[in-house]
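WARN retry 2 of 3 for item q-0093 after timeout on previous attempt; input resubmitted unchanged.
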Amino acid sequence: MRGKTREDLDLIELLDPVADSVGYEIVRLRLMGGNEQRRLQIMAERPLLEDGTGGDMNVEDCARLSRAISEVMDAADPIAGEYTLEVSSPGVDRPLTRLKDFDTYAGLEIRIELDRVAEGRKRFKGELAGVEDGQVGLNIEGEDDTTVYFPFEWIVDAKLVLNDELMKRGADQRAARVSAEGDDADSQDIGGDADSDIDLSESEED
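OK item q-0093 returned
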């Protein structure tokens, strides 16, 4: 689910180590558009820590990752022709693309789409019940005491549902990060960050 096409998956293989080297994880990558002008959309985040910090990306994070990716893309030149690089945060109502995401966000409401019919349909909505033996559990909405499990490989799309509980979780994570960054600022003399001047959408050409 992190990539849809063979080209997406090849780019993920190239860029995963790049993101990791600067402290981020690629959540999803999509290379879109025709041959004349394409868009490389990369959704990324900081690794989520046990204390609940991490996860989100601010403008400086996106700029830093964009610069690191651009350097490797310029050297490897894996995309023919012109393209625009876009780096962003997953957002509050984020997609779930990795098996570990379904454990991290257990207890929250999600929508899932499968690549096949199961229980008479392909689309489901309900409370995420975590992961068991490589299968994703879902407490189906409107069906009390009904938990179904789907192999992770069957899932083609999954996304958190934006509601009050999710908004509160996002606010708590942002507050924890601001607090952590404030502690860091108090302990050192911080100058201007050159990353803040970087345009997150960069045009490239072969």
